[in-house]
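Q: Joint fold for the lines below.
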Amino acid sequence: MSSVNNLNGSGAGAVCTRCSPADVEQGRCNATHFVHEKMDDEPVAELEPEIVTPRPPPVDLSHHLSSLARSLRKSNLKGLYKYRSVPGIVNLAGGLPSPNYFPFDSLSASVAPCDRFAESMNSSLLSMLKSSKRCRNITVPKFVSPQGGRSSDVCLASALQYSAVEGLPKLRTFVKEFATKYQHQGKIPYDSPEVIMTCGNTDGLAKALKILGEGARGDKMLVEKYVYGGGPETAAAMGIGIVPVEMDKEGMMADGDGGLQEILESWDTVRDGPRPHLMYTITLGQNPTSSVLGLERRKEIYALCQKYDIIILEDDPYWFLQYGLFPELPDNRTFLARLTPSYITLDTDGRVLRFDTFSKTMAPGCRLGWIIGHPRFTERIARLTDTTTQFPSGAIQALVTKLLVDTWSISGWITWLSLLREKYEQRANLMCAALETSRTVTIIHLKNIRVRDDDGNVIDGPGGKYSLVHKAVKELYEFERPMGGMFIWVRVYFEIHRLFDGTNGQRIMDALFKYLAGPNLRCLVCPGGYFVPLDDGEGDGWKYLRLCFAAVEVEDLKRASENFGRGVKEFFELTEFPPDEDVEADGAGEDAELDVPHFC
Ligand SMILES: Cc1ncc(COP(=O)(O)O)c(C=O)c1O
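A: Joint structure:
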């Protein structure tokens, strides 16, 4: 059986060169297609980048640990876990409930094939793949079958039991292999980066901040000037100072006014306290700006972090959503190789802790993600996990294991990510096109001119009168085409609104927000001020709105994007502020809140 793991987007009308037509017909072909339901003999080696070994260990960075991290003890009881796998051992040590009394006998789900979103592929290939379009049923039994099951051997008796803080071993192994060899292309420069599963990036970040940050020590954290609140808000609540760094189209700036270098070089420890030793950054599909930080900039920033001994907390839920890279659907290898790499691929020291989540690749309700980084840090996070969440939900870990390890395998997982990327890019394009059409208004000034003869008499009749037309194009808003992620960051030129008096920017923004959400347009957008990390009233967040193109149905997306443009135009024609009413939809209010998803 062939092992070519190829999305084969380049091959219009591609056919399998290795399997017989009968194999193809009966779904046994595994060569040209992007179907990667795991076959027992399917190696994924052809996707594997070469890994150079041995590598040096990471440097000792324990001086960054907080006093809480230093005082966390290893659980004595969890130390007994290793005996659970000793053949024949009877466990009288653990305070565990009997799995026989778990009310769940099995856990089943109908799951998508990894190539569900492949409509954009050519039709001959699609027709060949018809069989793979069907959902698969997966079942996690209560006990592993004595005959031996699929490769993950995941069962509810262990998944729903108290289990390893680092995550279910089969899942963690999968994630580690995926992260080190594929996502980061075998380029993490130090030996043995470690992985711990989390309940998503919010959980991972909170734990990382606890083991690395300490308000009482005067800790400070560098963040992008506009940034998703998760990291900064958690840090601020711990008394950690927030230091915003200037951004440009690419993301955090290394040099220039307000850039990282200037902040660090001009830091006066007598005046400003200890220099920041943490940096929280979203580098790929930044939330809210959708920028992607290029490799050269990364190198500069990483060098500064080395020089000033800063730990980088890289929060990248959108890493796989990078746009403008692929004129056609790439094969798996090309997909991964072209994505801008993470800081962790430059991390010779082990100073990058990286946060990945299944929230955007599967579903936020999974509450599942992982941290990869320096083993000393992940080990402390494991101790903290032991006293807090213990481990992510066993049920979801079991389902995800069954899907990734037994059903899709690594190549199928990459296919899934690649096709999701494609779908979200289509949405980004759709929204950009709709927003572009209403971005400007043309203002026409008409002046009637009368023509006079040489003696200065007005000439009446044809040719004696004409209009002088002066045309001016005014931009009401502008935006950068997103380079990644799920958002468009719109700069609205409130300053040219006739109601702007130089000081009331926030008021005009609030009025626009309500106008857009009001009964005629029903278009809910996110005010830019929500992404200004220091809420000191000084920021210019009021000039921006964040629009998400990911969540709603394509038809609604189109309509809402058009309504946005129309709404802004109408709003700029207002000569007085609309009545300041709260937007109340029928049935909205406290109770309706329950059905409304949370916002990220
Ligand atoms: C930058 C960033 N980090 C973290 C999160 C939350 O991730 P999780 O669901 O894994 O907690 C989000 C959600 O939108 C996000 O945009």
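Q: Anything notable?
A: The two ends are 44 Å apart (CA to CA). Confidence is low (pLDDT under 50) at residues 1-45, 589-594.
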